[in-house]
Amino acid sequence: MASKYQLRLGDREAEVEVEEKEGGLFHLTLNGVSFPVSLERISQSAHYSIIVDNRPCDFFAEETPHGYQIIIDAHTYAVTTRPTRVSPVAARLPEAPALAGELVLASPMTGVVREVHVSPGDEVKAGAVVVVIEAMKMQNELRASHDGTVKAVYVSAGQRVEQGAPLLVLL
Q1: In this predicted model, what pLDDT tens digit does every residue of 58-95 receive, in sequence order?
Q2: CATH for 103-170 (2.60.40.420, 3.20.20.70, 2.40.50.100, 3.40.50.970)
Q3: The domain at 2-92 falls in which architecture?
């Protein structure tokens, strides 16, 4: 069954139809142009890998009350949607972040996540080590900038991250 949406990104609108196939494959029609899409969720997080027209892209997607917050290459996009039916894609996305008052901790460097010391729901104090990233054979401890609650964790140990990639959300 296909789901239809009206998408809004800034002042641009588009009509999209999504039809789920087997094994994470989808058929997408955007403003009348159709193409196959492969979507895979990484590590039960908000991190996804997508292949559109044989071009890969990794992104983070959080559902919001009005659509999605998409993070690609350290740029955040608010995408609003108006579904005509319940989407199988939307059913797989994590719960919405509360955008006001949250801090997205981004990786200050390209490297490999060696340790993740927090989980969603954990209370942390300012200065507590939350993630350790190895870059150029150095262990870099990333610390909480303020007291708060961990809302989401986007990475896991052993995962390679690029500079600017979101690691976690702290409220």
Answers
A1: 887 776 656 677 777 777 777 766 544 433 433 333 33
A2: 2.40.50.100
A3: 2-Layer Sandwich (3.30)
> HSE of 34 in the Cβ direction (CA atoms, 13 Å)?
6
Q: Which of 95, 70, 99 is nearest to 8 (CA)?
A: 70
pTM: 0.46
Cα 64 from Cα 95, distance rounded (Å): 7
C-beta separation of 129 from 138 below 8 A: no
The ranges assigned to domains in the chain are 2-92, 103-170
Q: Give the pLDDT score at 88.
A: 41
* Dist. CA 104–CA 153, nearest whole Å: 10
pLDDT per residue as tens digits for the range 123-166: 999 889 999 998 878 888 888 888 889 988 888 888 888 877 78
Quote the CA–CA distance of 113 and 45 in Å, as a whole number: 15
Supply 59's token pair: 């992104």
CB-based contacts of 75, cutoff 8 Å, min separation 6: none
Segment 145-154, tens digit of pLDDT: 888 899 888 8
Look up residue 21 and give its amino acid.
K
Looking at residue 14, its amino acid is A
